[in-house]
């Protein structure tokens, strides 16, 4: 349900919280991807850079609030990412989109409310993120 980029951001936040810095490196990300994610997370005030530290390394940052207060919705919005349902899309669904817009709006709002209730402290780390598979709920 979560993209590689979102999972990497979760790993970076985990590493910053626990000063471990191994989970995010297990993804083998490019330095430019790490820098991009740090910039996005910083811009949305999820992390802050430690004074006189380089801006392209997770070690240079600290969380802007308590770890358990960071929710999945804030991360998705910071990254401009979304969640992707594990159901194959079919053309019939898309052709009906116009008539179902109101229902989709309700689903969207309910999803946002539920995502705001998911603290990153509740998400599994280590092997779940490394394998690029967050368990489906």
UniProtKB/TrEMBL annotation:
Protein name in the entry: Uncharacterized protein
Top-rank taxon: Bacteria
Organism (species): Bacteroides cellulosilyticus
